From TrEMBL:
One of its GO terms (molecular function) is cysteine-type peptidase activity. It comes from Vannella robusta. Residues 76-259 form the Ubiquitin-like protease family profile domain. This is Ubiquitin-like protease family profile domain-containing protein. Residues 297-317 are annotated as: Disordered.
Length: 317
């Protein structure tokens, strides 16, 4: 039977009054865009599993297959269930995104010292209403690194169930002005790489980023700089777009990787033919191959999550 739902404001938890809320409308539009891919695939898998009498083995899904980079405090622990998301038509989660960001940072970037790579945690925090932007705890997210000395600040974003990439260019060169800077070759801006540009709104995203930078500058520099839409404008390069409802995370990673190969702040230096769609199609296989290679280098030993091991012990007792 056809289990694909008719997505409306009401059955996704929104009311008619929400129709004037840009952020909630973004969620609604993204759900509309994704529904064919998600539910068609889920029905196909569900039907196949039921017909075979298959049962999910959660013990295998919770196996840690790789901890990388090894011997570091902020290493990413990849589970068997994470690797399953590298199959076609699956949505990448923050674990896969964070892993590959670290791989780009440590293995692929030709000159990583001019870039600062945030993980997916940052945007989650700065987009929360309860985040205290006056607290010195903001410094914890960057440690001893002065990100304002970097040419590029790279921020992965998940907004309204959709992955996209923001890159802040030359924040230290921001001018304090209420007018659009008339300086020739003015470099400070936020480049927004979005593989589904016609569906997502950017106003909230850039507001959160500017608010964070303003607060961090005040805490770390003991002076006031107001990052705003005039002195740190958003620029949207013309870039390749996804043709399905599941590859936004893959596009994010490919945007990031291609950018670090040749960083540039000019938004008009990017084109729709920046890369071929085949490169995105193959990227899932490439990431999986990299994980398997790194796993082999570490001896290929799989570990259970601590909670699972404890549960198993308790059951035996």
């Amino acid at each position: 039977c056809d289990m694909k739902p008719n997505i409306t404001l009401k059955n996704v938890g929104l009311c008619e009054a929400d129709s004037d809320s840009p952020e909630k409308q973004d969620i609604f539009k993204v759900l509309q865009f994704y529904k064919n891919t998600i539910f068609t695939k889920q029905n196909r898998v569900r039907t196949r599993s039921i017909s075979r009498g298959e049962k999910r083995d959660f013990s295998k899904e919770n196996k840690i297959v790789l901890v990388w980079p090894p011997d570091t405090k902020d290493a990413v622990s990849l589970l068997q269930s994470d690797l399953a998301l590298l199959q076609p038509e699956e949505f990448l989660n923050d674990n896969i995104i964070d892993f590959y960001i670290k791989y780009i940072r440590f293995r692929l970037s030709s000159d990583p010292e001019n870039c600062y790579f945030f993980n997916t945690f940052l945007y989650k925090m700065i987009s929360r209403k309860q985040t205290d932007f006056e607290s010195r705890s903001l410094i914890r997210w960057t440690g001893n690194v002065d990100i304002f000395e970097k040419d590029y600040i790279i921020i992965p974003i998940n907004q309204s169930l959709h992955w996209l990439l923001a890159i802040v260019c030359f924040p230290r060169e921001v001018l304090q002005t209420d007018e659009v800077p008339l300086v020739e070759n003015y470099r400070p801006n936020i480049l927004l790489f979005d593989s589904m540009a016609s569906y997502s709104s950017t106003r909230k995203i850039t507001q959160h980023i500017r608010k964070y930078l303003t607060a961090l500058w005040k805490i770390t520099k003991n002076s006031a700089v107001d990052f705003n839409c005039k002195n740190l404008p958003v620029k949207k390069p013309k870039i390749p777009q996804q043709s399905n409802g599941s590859d936004c995370g893959v596009f994010l990673l490919h945007f990031m990787e291609k950018f670090t190969e040749k960083p540039r702040w000019e938004y008009d230096k990017f084109e729709l033919d920046w890369f071929l769609e085949d490169e995105v199609t193959e990227k899932r296989k490439q990431i999986l191959s990299i994980i398997e290679r790194l796993k082999a280098e570490q001896g290929g030993e799989e570990k259970e999550l601590e909670s699972d091991a404890k549960d198993e012990k308790d059951n035996k007792e």
